[in-house]
Amino acid sequence: MGTSQHQKAQSRAAIIVAASRLFRERGVEAVSVAQVMDAAGMTHGGFPRHFANKQELVNEALASAADEQQAGNATSSDGFETFADTYLTRQHRDHPESGCVFAALGGEISRAPAETRRVLSERIQRQIAAFGDDPDMRADALGRWSSLIGAMILARLVEPEELSDQIIAAARQFVGLPEQVKA
Fold first, then answer.
1. Which residues belong to any copy of the HTH tetR-type domain (predicted)?
2. Which of 4, 14, 101, 156 lies in disulfide reach of 40, CB 3.0 to 4.6 Å?
3. Where are any strands of DSSP class E within the chain?
């Protein structure tokens, strides 16, 4: 790959990273292309060299965030416990920009164009497949994973913080972790 192609690829990757963070932090609709480009350290005018439109960027940024999360998920019982232990924390609750794309944007994406829903549906199906072929193990893992996502959405939604912590603690207990809410 030539230098200019390499630079273009690096710029595109920086745009995707910035968009992924901003979309999870503020929501897709609340973030403009200009804000993404600024966060990536580029000018708005350079956007068309990388993406046809904002929707293409949304699809790639959300797919990237989901792929990153799945790469960090282990599928064994111990792996799930480790994943859940870091998922159900104040840190994750307080920093959606670096957390689970499904908990950060699930409600918004459910109303997104079909292509965006398809992109994330594929990632969900990959994660389900990673849970294994055993129907009972798969159903258990899917139920526990869904509980994590739902708990994080509720924990971010409510006030006061004490209630948020109680939601996280209850979810931790439900999936078999110590109730103590970690920072």
1. 9-69
2. 14
3. none
For residue 182, what are the β-bridge partners?
A: 89
Cα–Cα distance measured from residue 105 to residue 26, given in angstroms and rounded to the nearest whole number: 9
Residues 22-56 pLDDT 10s: 999 999 999 999 999 999 999 999 999 999 999 99
Distances (CA, A) of 76 to 101, 112, 121: 22, 32, 22
26 falls within a domain: no
156 vs 58: CA distance, rounded Å: 22
pLDDT digits (tens, 9 = 90+) for 50-101: 999 999 999 999 999 999 888 766 544 557 788 899 999 999 999 999 999 9
- Do the domain assignments include residue 81? yes
Rounded distance, CA 179 to CA 118, Å?
35
Q: How far apart are CA 13 and CA 166, in angstroms?
A: 38
How many structural domains are present in the chain? 1
Cα 99 from Cα 68, distance rounded (Å)? 10
Sign of the alpha-carbon dihedral angle for 171, 85, 130, 71: positive
